[in-house]
Amino acid sequence: MVDRKNIEGGLASEHPRPRVPASRMAWDHPIGTIGLALHSMEKPILRHSFLSRSVWVLGVWSLSLGLGLRAAWADYSSEEASRIVHRLAAQDKRLAERRRQFDYDLIIIREKLDAERRIVSESKQRQMVYADRPPDYGSRPEKGPEGETAKAAQEEPFEVLNVIDHYDYALDGSETVNGVDCYKIRFTPRPNMPYRNREEKVVNAVWGHLWVSKEDYSLMRNEGFLGHPVSVAWFFARLYELEFRWESQRLPNGDWGPKEVRYRYAVHIPFGWLRERVIRESVDFRYHGSGKKAAPAIR
Is residue 78 part of a domain? Predict the structure, then answer.
């Protein structure tokens, strides 16, 4: 049997390896030192590189997923909001027909405003509205911008629901109005929509929100504002400001109906401005023919 220790020992004695001090190795063999250093760093560098690539890939994937989810939510929000608004429009028509069984009193308040929105003058009018005939607003108003604003104050405000296809819709969460849980829906005008009259031209530039009952799709609140100035029918007249708010109330038959609408506007005309706030209150709803006499006018 061969003695492995003797062979290894003999070889070692015949060819002894020079022993280099550690201090000399560092200075006399720089390439070897760098190699050792790189070898010692190789695993951490590879591990760091792998982790960096993993984090980058994970970040890109997360961003893509987030954008995809956001786009999917936007599509769902738009489709769901549009569905709700169309059900709201159908319900509004039914409720308007049911309101024809009522008489009520209409109070119209007009407040002339200065540039700081302080009230300069005020007028108030109260009249009965009968279920079986249109309102009688008295004498024809004077011509010109002042007459137009007086006429507009007496007429029913133009409703956004008449042109629901002129807007894009999105869900903006839920809120409670008059104790009713509601969808809050944001509406924004679609660009370059056609218009048939001055009112449609204005509402094509209106942004705002609708509050819709989750129970029966009744309109509970509506508010909005003018997004940019709009030229209107009068000569060189331009509407610069408009904001409005519509509120609901319970009617005698349990339906939700109009309570108050208030709007404020500022129109620039040659040599001046028209600034006004109008408040229209619908009060004392009662079944038609209940025998109540007309309320005296308030001026």
Answer: no
Contact 89, 164 (CB under 8 A): yes
Q: Which of 279, 265, 251, 44 is nearest to 149 (CA)?
A: 265
Taking only the tens place, the pLDDT of each residue in 168-205 is 999 999 999 999 999 999 999 999 899 888 888 998 99
| pLDDT band at residue 51 using 50, 70 and 90 as cut-offs | low
Global pTM reads 0.70
- Give the residue among 143, 150, 147, 140 at the shortest CA–CA distance from 109: 150
Q: What are the angstrom distances between the C-alpha of 236 and each of 124, 195, 292?
A: 29, 19, 46
* Dist. CA 83–CA 229, nearest whole Å: 30
State the amino acid at position 87 in one-letter form: R
- Structural domain of 162: 88-287
